[in-house]
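thought: fold this chain, then report.
action: predict
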Amino acid sequence: MLDTSATLGLHSVEQYKSLIGVEAAERIVRKADRLRALHVVHVSSTFYGGGVTEMLTPLTLMMNAVGIQTGWRMIQGTPGFFSCTKKLHNASQGEDIQLTEEEKAIYEQVVFENALRLDLDDADAVIVHDPQPLPLINVVQDREAPWIWQFHIDLSAPNPPVWEYLRRFVEQYDTAVLHLPEYAQELTIDQRFILPAIDPFSAENCELTDHEIDECLAHHRIPLDRPLIVQVLRFDRWKDPWGVIEAFRQARKAVDCTLVVLGNTAVDDPEAEVILETHHSSVDERLLVLTVDDATLVNALQRRAAVVLQKSIREGFGLTVTEAMWKGAAVVGGNVGGIRRQITDGENGFLVNTVDEAAQRIVQLLTNNDLRQRLGANAQSTVRENFLLTRLLEDWIDLLAKKSELGRAE
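observation:
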């Protein structure tokens, strides 16, 4: 039997007591104790890249740490499969896309093949994330365990034909979990709303000394002779990378600065390389595009940045926004989706609708140190109160207790 006693402390509720209080920490542990007999399995499409992975990595570890046996399974796919699922992703956020019958057949066949390998029969609850593994439910027969589907993007105005196709699968689940009530759809099943959260103790979010920050940035040759504007992202058109570059160039006319774009690609996103190539084609001596896989670099950049940008045009929820806010950064975010739940304009950051507005806010923040500090302090308080991993854990414990036979018995 695996001895986890030496490592569970790294992902325990105990370490959060100084942040959330003893009473809240003990409440979560008591709730989790009632679910110790539960075996939960999460299913997604990648272990690397994107917000889903950023959340599931600490969440699955903490669920195990509180005594809920939790697994994380991965589906495999061909390039054709992931090209199709990227279309589903984009169409779900409103893009006008036609899905061919051939693409639907590829999508369903690959998921069917994965279902034969995943062996989910012994799970007491299955949580399926995003469109990639969605049709798994089609293959399940005589199921007794609750199946829950969570969609992590902005579903406020999906492409109607594509959504009708996806809904055939969604309505076979027991529950659909979305981030915000405004993403709710007309469904015959229960809908719940759970906002994402961050792990403040991860390498990406933990405290760093000034020396550690300087050392990390020097290692990656990040110039510090001018204020840093930083964008951390998954290379995706919905993050509006072209708008970010244009806002930076407009701002530079008033205040000299450096833009660092740090991003990653993922195996389930075939468009990422195209977006990355576009970024590289725009590079000048004050615009750095990095694809380094280094959580400490993300941390150091967000802590040293004068301004952090997330000028998305669609965003289910911006984890990079929360990460930067936790570090006390001044964040300028797109006035869309989940970002509006994170940033209160003018209080803990700024919301913008256009490139011109983004450029104006960059200049305003670069020329007003007191404003940056005030927004940053309020931003950190916002995250402490609303967006730490323990809140996400408790939300899932509450939902699983309601959906499982064990929870109803209690």
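thought: worth noting. The chain has 16 helices and twelve strands.
final: tokens above.
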